[in-house]
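Hi team,

As requested, here is the filled-out complex form for the dinuclear copper ion run. I kept the field names the same as last time so the parser does not choke. Let me know if anything looks off before we queue the next batch.

— J.
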Amino acid sequence: MMPGLPPAASAHAPDIDFVLGLEHVGMLVLFLAFFGYFAYVLARFRQSAHPTASYAGMTSRWSMYVVLAIILAEGTLLVAFEMPEWRARINDLPSSQEATVIRVVAEQYAWNVHYPGPDGLFGRTDINLVASDNPLGLDRRDPSAADDVTAVNQLTVPVNRPVLIHLTSKDVIHSFTLYEMRVKQDAIPGTDSPVWFIPTVTTSDMRIRLGKPDFEYEIACSQLCGLGHYRMRGFLNVKTDAEFRAFLAQESRPTAR
Ligand code: CUA
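And here is what came back:
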């Protein structure tokens, strides 16, 4: 419906695109109507046709009815379409049983990814353990941390299942953006912002669909967060369930570290 958008690859993407389309069509109608009215008024009330100003002004009320109709249309867009969509994104989070739960910790200028590993438990993290080889500050002495998997700028998720990301930041406000998933959420220091989506097309299927063998889903940062903002770029790898389990098993082996 909306030309110029990146390909859509999540379950809720058509809903977002539909609302985007409604908003743009609505704005186009308003623009054309107001511009048409402006041109009409310029011609209709030109000085040569009305050498003397009218001191009574307009007496009919139709302009007020037009403005009320616009308010009603915009209110309907907000209440009937945008708020339910927002609610579904923000309030109705998938349960941690059905979803793949991942932590993403933003920093200047990288995305740190933390998987709980096969035990499903995130290991303890401690700000004092943060080092260049341990950007998350993961405490490997914690039993639940033993099988945890970490990555930098590479987010790997399984297709056709909810992915629940707990997003936060170590320093300044960043904005976690997955264009093809229609996901955008600020990463705020000291705050856990959950964000979720269901990817519907694996990276390899999208490459075939687009005819681009080197296509990657990108993780972009959409808040100007410092001098290196432009290079705060990661990749989202959408895999089949079997590939994802193989990836986790491979990465969580102690020898893999
Ligand atoms: Cu992080 Cu821009």
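Two things worth flagging: The pocket of dinuclear copper ion is lined by residues 106, 109, 174, 221, 223-225, 229, 232 (CB under 6 Å). Strands lie at 100-107, 110-115, 149-152, 154-158, 163-169, 174-178, 183-187, 193-197, 217-221, 233-239.

Thanks,
J.
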